[in-house]
Amino acid sequence: MPVAGDVDDRVRDALEATGWPVYGVDVSISPRAYFDLLFEYWADGATFTVIEHDMVVHATALEELDACPYEWCAFPYRYGTHERHYGLGCAKFGEELIARNPDAMRRVGTMRDMNHPARHWCRLDAWLQGVVLPGSGEHMHRHERSVRHLGCGNSHGCIPS
């Protein structure tokens, strides 16, 4: 299982326990590398699953995502003050969702706010939800069982403490 970058042993062990093949990509090269990766996968059009480098998944998480009939689904995790944040930490995007929203990542790539330039990794989940969900009839299925987030939720100081 090639897991890229400096990954915590708890993350690596949890991924191995799923029994699923995992392909790791190091996106630490720049604040925009994560966007570039997601853009590439979206453009490919095939179903894909994201598990971020600081997520400890339970043994059945990948099986549950694969079996889930929804085109967009995610497991919750603690992020900052949110007990049940549904972001990119552990999420699946289906090919039919992508086909219905082919320009979603291009649109996400143009978004910015006062703390984040366009394509910055920190806001990709919120920006993607903002592009795809409102008024589109799309739905993000929210799985119940949480995965564990090892990160602090404010790793680059964008949110006042």
Explain this structure.
With 161 residues, the chain is of the alpha+beta class. The chain has one domain (30-52, 59-149). Helices cover 30% and strands 15% of the residues. The protein is built from six helices and eight strands. It has helices spanning 9-18, 33-44, 61-67, 95-100, 104-108, 124-132; strands spanning 48-51, 55-56, 72-74, 77-79, 82-85, 90-93, 141-142, 148-149. The strands form three sheets. It has a four-stranded mixed beta sheet. Strands 2-8 form a two-stranded antiparallel sheet. The chain has a two-stranded antiparallel sheet with strand order 4-5. The longest helix is centred in the first third of the chain and has 12 residues, at 33-44. The protein is globular and about 35 Å long.
How would you summarize this macromolecular structure in one to three sentences?
This protein is an alpha+beta fold. Helices cover 30% and strands 15% of the residues.
